[in-house]
Amino acid sequence: MNGWDVRVVGADGPVVRAAVDIDPAHPVLEGHYPGFPILPGLYLVEYVHSLVRATRGVRRPVALERVRFAAPVYGGDTVDLAAELSEKDGVLRCAATASVGERTVAQIRLRYATGGVR
């Protein structure tokens, strides 16, 4: 458990799933926010991107279409990711939800170019 490893745990049609264990000793938690350590939201975006990269082989998104952070993530939490992927005309879209238990912590939409750009 290092706060960064995204474990792909399954796929059901266009939906791929992963989990990330957040190490309470991860150094980023010390400085974000002092006295109230939470995972920076950018890490959730990176976790979703890592899931898409692991399952579809794309290297980089061309757009972060939308992100909504709904609740904090703490050290010791396990973040569950569910990403619905759809591809049309050389564009891969990802609509993902990150949750901890029953609590939605973020909704993230990424867009990738698949026509020769990986």
UniProtKB/TrEMBL annotation:
InterPro entries: ApeI-like, HotDog_dom_sf. The lineage of its organism: Bacteria, Bacillati, Actinomycetota, Actinomycetes, Pseudonocardiales. This is 3-hydroxyacyl-[acyl-carrier-protein] dehydratase. Residues 16-93 form the ApeI dehydratase-like domain. Pfam families: ApeI-like. It comes from Lentzea albidocapillata subsp. violacea.
